[in-house]
Structure formats: C-alpha cells, structure tokens
Amino acid sequence: MTRGSAEPGPGVAQRHADPVAAAIVLAADPPPGGRPGALVRVGGPTVLARAISVLGSAGVPRVLVTGGPAVLDAARRLGASAYVPGGPLPAGRYLLVAGDALFDAETVRSLADHGGDVRCTDAALAVVDAATATAAADAGSFAGVPEGPLAPAAGFATTLAGPGDLRRVRRALWQRYGPKPTDGLVCRYLNRPLSRPVTLLLTRMRIGPDALTLASFLVAVAGAAVVGFGGRWWTMLLGGVLIQAGNALDGVDGEVARIGLRSSRRGALLDTTLDRYADLAVLAGLALAAGGRPADWIWAFAAAAASLLISYINAVAPRAPQRLLRRDVRLLVCALAAALSLPLWGLVVVAVLGNLDALRVFGQVIRRAPGPR
C-alpha cells in the first residue's frame, strides 16, 4: 500500500474548506445463521471497532452506524450512534464507510481534504453531500453513490470480501503497520522476515503486546544465561541462536500492537526498559563466557556504556543523525560472537564501534543544539 500523500484526481478540486460533518458506517444486516462482516475480528479488534477508532483519530466528530441489532449494539458500546432513518441529514459533507472496509486515518484525511464528492479507489469509502448520504444510509449500501471522481488512498485502505479473505487482509495490515521507516538493514532484511510469520499467527489469537514484550525479553535473557554458564561449544551456539531469536521477536510486540491498534506509552516504556535489561544480560553472558577476568568485564562495561548511550541519545534527540550500531545490529553481533565461540571479540566490537558511533552522533547533535558556545 502506498504511504505518500495522494494527489487530486481528474475533476477533483483542491483542498475543501468545510470539514466532514460525520461518518456513516454502512454495516449490512447479518445473513441468516452467519456472522456480520463488521463484527469479524481482524488483528484483534473487530472491523467495526477498528473503523470507529480510526475515524475518531482522524478527527471525524461523529460516527453513525447502520445495520442489524447486533451491529448497532456493538456500535453503542464503542461510542458510536445508530443512524435513525426517516429524515434528511443536515447540510454538509459526509464520509460513507462500508461495513467491511479497513483503512487508516491518513486515508480519511486525504479524502476529506478533496473538494466536493470523491471516492476511494482501494475500498468502499466516499465523501458525499447530505442528500446522497441520506439515500445511502436509508438503503444501507453504496448502491446509489456515484462512481466518481476517484482518488487513490494516501495510506491504507482495503475491504474484507469474506471470512476466506482474512489471510490477505492480515498480510496487508502487516505490510502497512509492521515495517517502520526507521528500520535499519538488519531489522529490515533479517528480523522483519523472521518476525512476520510469528506476528501473522499471533494476530489470530488474543495475546496482548505486553505479554509478547516479556516473552522476547525472556528469550534473550535465556540465551545470555546459556552463553554465560554453558561452557561448551554447543551451548554457545544455542545461546547465540536464542539471543538472535530474542532480537527478532523484539519487533513482534510492536507489530501486534500497531496492527491491533493497541499502541500505548505504557507499552513503549515497558519495551524500552526490558530491552535495556536484556542488553546488559547479554553482555554479562559474553563476559562470563570469555572467562570473567577483569579485562573481560572492562570490555563488557565499555560495551554496556555504548549501548546505553546510543539508547539515551535516541530518546533525548529523536531527530539525531542515523545511528549505525542500532540495537538490532548490536544483538546480531553478540549472537554471532556467541555462536562462533568468540565472546570477547563480540564485546570488543560492540564497545569500540558502539562508542565511536555514539560519539559521532553526539558530536553532530551538540553542534546543532541551541545555546552559547
């Protein structure tokens, strides 16, 4: 799915001054003996809950829902209102949303910014006038909505054709919310491909991101313990595999949270804190495997300082220049050092390259920081 902003299509005016008055979710009545599409869970929340949450985050002031009793009851519990037929809607612009549509706030804003009537090319969403919105809401469908003009979705938009389409939709959601623009090379080409099947499996279950954060932490710490106390080549190999597994699994909690609309500051704090403890455990494990001599612990201390300093700069200066020795790279270096039974060399590489990288970024940040010289 495209990530950039959409340009107005042919026949579509530039940005419209009037905001969208309300969104109307056209959720069809459930078929006899079947589940309504709007109440199918995709990545955690139902399609209806996802739509209401995204519309609210996009700044839509009011959400109306059409459908059967089960849909309307769920809509009320989610903070939306039931559409009451029998009278025209007040004048204004309205966003029509199909009950089986999945989309993001960027798509809603891009449609609302177009002047006049406009439809999304990737899913059943349309911005229409009050008369067209009233007719569509009374009918509960897009049957009477004009086909054009069309505008490409700026963010993510698709439709759930049926229960058999869940696999495609889950993959589309991962593609949209899994990888991040800030991913480094190791994360993009190694960790994400490893975490993707795990995330797609977990989105079919009701496991919270916090539990996954704890699981990745425990895997990394288990690898550190096996490396530090194993004492054999095969325990070093096993420990290295576990450390890299924890490295790859570290992205699963974030992917599940973003796909399921469950991201939070609390989860980010938990993830960041446990990551630091896992990093220290891995470095301690390498120091013990190297022999636990004073020189080994000095290198471990230097590597820990680099790891913590890079993380601190990242926290206080999010717009700092690109960091080369990110956490995914550092853990991969540690995992390879353990698997090859070269624990001291792993500490040396992380300590030297990590501190050089941290000092490089710090120097650029401090030169740009305001204040007397």
TrEMBL record:
Any one Gene Ontology BP term: phospholipid biosynthetic process
Membrane spanning residue stretches: 211-234, 297-317, 329-353
Keywords: Membrane, Transferase, Transmembrane, Transmembrane helix
Cellular-component GO terms for this entry: membrane
Tagged with keyword Transmembrane helix: yes
Catalytic activity: CDP-1L-myo-inositol + 1D-myo-inositol 3-phosphate = bis(1L-myo-inositol) 3,1'-phosphate 1-phosphate + CMP + H(+); 1D-myo-inositol 3-phosphate + CTP + H(+) = CDP-1L-myo-inositol + diphosphate
Top enzyme class: transferase
Domain of life, per lineage: Bacteria
EC number: 2.7.7.74, 2.7.8.34
One function term, GO molecular function aspect: phosphotransferase activity, for other substituted phosphate groups
Family: In the N-terminal section; belongs to the MobA family.
Protein name (Swiss-Prot/TrEMBL): Bifunctional IPC transferase and DIPP synthase
Species the sequence originates in: Actinocatenispora rupis
